[in-house]
Amino acid sequence: MKFLKLAILTAAAFAFACAAEGVNNKVSVNNAVSPAVNAQPVATVSEIASGKKFYTDNCAACHRENGTGGPIEIKGRKIKPDNLTTDKIKSFPDEKIAGYIKNGIPDEGMPSFKDKLNDAEIAEIIHYVRAELQKQ
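Given the sequence above, the corresponding structure tokens read:
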């Protein structure tokens, strides 16, 4: 009888150990499963709405209303703003995107917005782009 109990306990421990190996490190945000490392803060409806206004007023002329960018001419200069809906841009951390908005990318024709937008407004633009243009 002791042997049977020991065998059952050993089998249970083995099963538990095997199951633990398959555990994924994901967190739930609004019932959606996403990798813990890439979990984005959830934006409010109000943040997304104001982010849309800031995006429309400051970004849409180059990146287009739908975020797809592409070749344009602004003030006599031909530039090719990034498509914000690509997997490459989706993978950028918010801090990197905020840095581009704040400091610009002069060689590519993107102006700096640090004198026009504060950190909260830039964050709202990023929330809008993530939620509405990138569908994240």
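The longest strand covers residues 26-29. Try to locate this feature in the token string yourself.
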